[in-house]
Amino acid sequence: MKKIIILLLTSILISILVSACDGNDGLGPQDNTHTPAQVEDTPLTEEEIYANLLARAEGLAEAYVSGDYMEAISFMYPRIVDMAGGSNDVAESLKQAIKEDQLAFLAMSAEDPMEIIESGERLFVIVPIVMEAQDLDGTMLIRSFQIGVSEDGGNQWWFMDSTGIGPNREMFILMFGDRIDQLEIPEPELLESY
Question: Positive or negative, the Cα torsion across 56, 15, 95, 108?
Answer without folding.
Answer: negative
